[in-house]
Amino acid sequence: MYFSVKYIDLNTFEETKDVDAYNISDLTDDAKRAINVQNKELIVNPDCFIAIIIDYVFAAVGIGDDIRTKFDIITSQGKPLTVHSYPPTSSGLNIFIDGEQYYVAFCDMGVTKPLLSKTSQEYFDLIEGRKRKVKTKKSKSSITRSSKESATHLHRLNSARTVKGSPSRAKGIVE
């Protein structure tokens, strides 16, 4: 029984957080070395308290107590688990799924940035997955909006069809 957490250490993340992986040719040699680091992986037993899991994972990443609340563990779909919202004695078995892959991420003021090498497939998959999710939400909202417009248009058509002097019939059409 285990799950795994992929990450890069906090110092490397700080060095590369503003670097765009698609403009690698413009980087200095030090930045290129920093961006090409390999992701590390921790194997974690979920059969313990969430506080112990958080301590173990964040200590490996190099996240101190003073900034701990700005970081979270996210799923492979990029969804934050909000591990700090659980009581410290909550069982990890109720939060993590056996055999699943998770990632450490910077999560502050609505911004989620995975602590992963920007040249890794995991980083690309998380970023592209979020872009697809945003596009899906936009298309769903436009469908909802057009459905509302259609309903308004249908209401207007039904109102125009009402027979003068027959309020009960008009009420039945609109409903």
Instruction: Estimate the helix proportion, in percent.
Output: 40-55%
- State the secondary-structure class: alpha+beta
Q: Indicate how many domains the architecture comprises.
A: 2
CATH architecture of the largest domain: Roll
The CATH superfamily label of the largest domain reads Phosphatidylinositol 3-kinase Catalytic Subunit, Chain A, domain 1
CATH class of the largest domain: Alpha Beta
Describe the structure.
This protein has 175 residues and is an alpha+beta fold. It has two domains: 3-119, Roll (Ubiquitin-like (UB roll)), CATH 3.10.20.90; 135-174, no CATH class. Helices cover 43% and strands 15% of the residues. It has helices at 10-16, 29-35, 50-61, 121-161, 167-174; strands spanning 3-7, 40-44, 71-74, 101-108, 111-114. Strands 1, 2, 3, 4 and 5 form a five-stranded mixed β-sheet that branches.
